[in-house]
Structure to design on (809 residues):
């Protein structure tokens, strides 16, 4: 943590030096760096911003809504052109966003939504992720008994993902082609809890499960372990995150799809949008902007929703060529001739 | 000598049958109560799940089936192993809140060693890998445990603070070690410890052989105990009491074996095994509810008569039982164990009596760490992966298991078998509710309530005994 702080201090110091330099200043208020993905996002934004001759500054709220409010005050006082905010708490952040607008600075809600009509919301289509998982599973198993391993009950994403799945499966469920045999939340999105839930699901249905929709890849690892113990590995299993181990499972055939949200794509898109805003382009004139009002309070916002990439056996090379995973990792233990990308 | 036994029991003849039985067998009534409560919970789950979805259980449900009981034991083993160590920690008036994070750290370290370091350098599947991984897990666990103990004993920081710091810090180390990714898959041999592959199932022959050996040991143990009492002129149990103990013990072992050996291999695995080993599959009649496999024409199908294998004891369960026996021995039969209880009963008195309480603290925490190492191996082998989320919050379940099992937070009191029964109770409730498809929020409410209720009953019982 101390390291991050010194880093932030160094960055802040370097900003005061460069404040007179040419170009615009793009600021980011991160909520945390505890999860590895944010480092990928940051690298993408930073390099895109700097490549265009602009300055990048940032703060890390270390998982605290209070610190984030103070962080944003600090950023405002440095007079950047645009502030991207990864909100730790999407309600508590609203006064800070108001302060940004009052200072005449543009704001972008990065990946986590907060409902302020003056901000641009850039994220992956989360309902879409659930939809893609369901579509890919339905492609290989159009009818049968489906089990749903949902994420933590306190996380709204768990519900968004499930909504997306239900949109796709509704017809099948209504006509009885698809039967929902188990549906459980998983405490803390933990793989070992998912494994236990899957074991109990298999016990209660006497193994009459034809496909499993897991809301992320970590839990899918627990699901596959439970299926393997029953000699059922290989039935369709869906997940998301593009976990390295999950991509390997896709190559091995124990998982059907891992929906991958390429954080680099998101960072590059956000950086481009931020630079455009800084140059004075109107929010609704930026490439790819549409209207979004699917949030908690239904506030209409300008938004860019990126489509995630489903990784299946047929397109593992996409993740490999993007540098997300090495070929060795993706193809560990894969028999020759079974997966094109591994040969 | 048997006459003496009878004369001992005579003055109590006016007492109820149950009281005489308990006096004669010297069975711990708290354990009797726990076992009864466990059975009640099991029956309730079986009846309730039977109403929702009829199955083959004792009361028509899915809980009291060989399959579910087998799974339940495997699911319990990791927590059960750690709970035996937690008993000694709590008995010594300490606490260890760091074991969940420690488990993730140790599991991730073991997995990184297997998958990222040894796998690529000496070849995936090399026998050195699984041995090195297990030894590394045990050594790392012991080291971290000893560190906790050292800080508690010599730096005189309360164990609560040391291990609270550990709870936060170790999970951070686990995250950095694997850079936040899931490390998988584990070595093929290493996976046997998790109980998820046929190689980790003992099968009926070895399960029964083991059961018979254990029965003989129970017999010899009780006979030997009686000799010992005679030698020192202690009061003896009546012969019928001894005989009943042997009968109950053997019946429990044989009953458990009978249940576990009647859980057949999953259909898919029998087929896989037969194909891999070129075992001929007999022809038969298809029956989708059967557990065996047979050929109908060219197709392999499920049927009642045909090729079938049964699981029996799984490796993680044997490990947990082994740990239980060894830890009971350590707690009750060694100087080390006596010291732990002496320190827990009265630390000052123990110190004045010449026990090196600081060294003992380090040893007990190191033992806890060693057990966390075992659990880390079981948990990561079972999941076939390790992540920094694995094991998180396990400390709460382990402490709850020890407390439900009758370990007193005031120190000095606690039994190993109680903690194992406590772990089984916690897991039974969780698995049972997952079986009923109850929402997770509801499960948390019930588990929390059971914990508080169990301690209340325990206090009530203790006051009455006094």
């Amino acid at each position: 943590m101390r390291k991050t702080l010194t880093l932030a201090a160094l960055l802040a110091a370097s900003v005061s030096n460069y404040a007179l330099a040419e170009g615009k200043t793009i600021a980011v208020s991160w909520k945390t760096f505890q999860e590895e993905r944010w480092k990928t996002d940051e690298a993408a934004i930073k390099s895109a911003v700097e490549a265009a001759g602009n300055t990048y500054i940032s703060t890390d709220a270390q998982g605290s809504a209070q610190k984030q409010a103070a962080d944003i005050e600090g950023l405002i006082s440095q007079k950047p052109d645009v502030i991207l905010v990864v909100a730790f708490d999407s309600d508590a952040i609203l006064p800070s966003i108001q302060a940004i607008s009052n200072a005449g600075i543009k704001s972008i809600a990065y990946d986590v939504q907060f409902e302020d009509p003056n901000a641009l919301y850039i994220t992956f289509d989360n309902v879409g992720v659930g939809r893609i998982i369901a579509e890919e599973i339905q492609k290989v198993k159009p009818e049968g008994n489906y089990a749903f391993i949902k994420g933590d009950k306190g996380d709204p994403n768990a519900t968004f993902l499930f909504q997306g799945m239900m949109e796709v499966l509704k017809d099948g469920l209504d006509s009885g082609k698809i039967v929902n045999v188990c549906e459980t939340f998983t405490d803390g999105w933990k793989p070992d809890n998912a494994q236990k839930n899957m074991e109990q699901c298999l016990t209660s249905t006497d193994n009459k499960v034809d496909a499993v929709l897991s809301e992320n890849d970590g839990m899918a690892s627990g699901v596959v372990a439970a299926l393997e113990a029953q000699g059922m590995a290989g039935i369709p299993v869906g997940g998301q995150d593009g976990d390295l181990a999950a991509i390997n499972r896709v190559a091995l055939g124990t998982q059907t799809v891992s929906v991958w949200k390429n954080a680099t794509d998101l960072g590059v898109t956000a950086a481009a949008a931020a630079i455009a805003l800084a140059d004075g382009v109107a929010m609704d004139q930026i490439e790819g902007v549409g209207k979004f009002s699917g949030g908690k309070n239904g506030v209409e916002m300008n938004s860019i929703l990126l489509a995630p990439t489903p990784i299946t056996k047929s397109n593992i090379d996409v993740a490999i060529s993007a540098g997300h995973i090495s070929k060795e990792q993706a193809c560990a233990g894969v028999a020759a001739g079974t997966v094109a990308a591994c040969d | 000598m048997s006459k003496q036994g009878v004369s001992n029991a005579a003055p109590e003849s006016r007492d109820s049958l149950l009281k005489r039985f308990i006096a004669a067998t010297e069975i711990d009534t708290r354990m009797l109560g726990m076992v009864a409560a466990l059975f009640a919970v099991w029956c309730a789950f079986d009846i309730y799940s039977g109403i929702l979805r009829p199955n083959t259980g004792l009361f028509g449900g899915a809980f009291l089936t060989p399959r579910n009981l087998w799974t339940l034991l495997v699911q319990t083993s990791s927590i059960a192993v750690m709970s035996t160590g937690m008993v000694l920690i709590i008995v010594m008036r300490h606490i260890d809140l760091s074991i969940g994070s420690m488990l993730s750290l140790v599991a991730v370290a073991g997995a990184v060693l297997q998958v990222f370091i040894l796998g690529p350098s000496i070849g995936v599947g090399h026998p050195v890998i699984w041995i090195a991984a297990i030894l590394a897990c045990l050594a790392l666990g012991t080291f971290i445990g000893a560190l906790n103990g050292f800080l508690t004993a010599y730096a005189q920081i309360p164990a609560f603070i040391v291990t609270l710091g550990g709870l936060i810090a170790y999970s951070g180390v686990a995250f950095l070690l694997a850079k936040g990714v899931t490390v998988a898959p584990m070595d093929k041999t290493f996976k046997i410890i998790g109980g998820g592959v046929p190689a980790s199932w003992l099968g009926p022959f070895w399960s029964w052989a083991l059961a018979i050996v254990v029965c003989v040991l129970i017999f010899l143990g009780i006979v030997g105990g009686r000799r010992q009492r005679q030698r020192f002129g202690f009061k003896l149990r009546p012969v019928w009491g001894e005989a009943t103990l042997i009968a109950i013990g053997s019946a429990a072992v044989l009953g458990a074996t009978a249940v576990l050996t009647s859980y057949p291999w999953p259909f898919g695995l029998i087929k896989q095994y037969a194909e891999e080993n070129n075992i001929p599959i007999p022809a038969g009649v298809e029956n989708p509810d059967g557990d065996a496999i047979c050929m109908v024409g060219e197709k392999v199908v499920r049927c009642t008569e045909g090729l079938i294998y049964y699981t029996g004891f799984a490796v993680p369960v044997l490990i947990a039982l082994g740990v239980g026996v060894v830890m009971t021995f350590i707690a009750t039969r060694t100087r080390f164990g006596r010291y732990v209880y002496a320190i827990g009963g009265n630390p000052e008195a123990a110190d004045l009596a010449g026990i090196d309480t600081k060294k003992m603290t380090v040893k007990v925490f190191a033992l806890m760490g060693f057990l966390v190492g075992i659990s880390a191996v079981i948990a990561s082998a079972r999941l076939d992966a390790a992540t920094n989320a694995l094991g998180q919050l396990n400390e709460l379940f382990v402490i709850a298991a020890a407390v439900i099992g009758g370990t007193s937070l005031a120190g000095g009191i606690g039994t190993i078998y109680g903690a194992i029964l406590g772990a089984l109770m916690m897991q039974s409730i969780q698995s049972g509710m997952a079986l009923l498809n109850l929402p997770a929020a509801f499960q948390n409410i019930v588990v929390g309530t059971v914990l508080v209720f169990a301690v209340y009953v325990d206090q009530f019982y203790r006051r009455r005994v006094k």
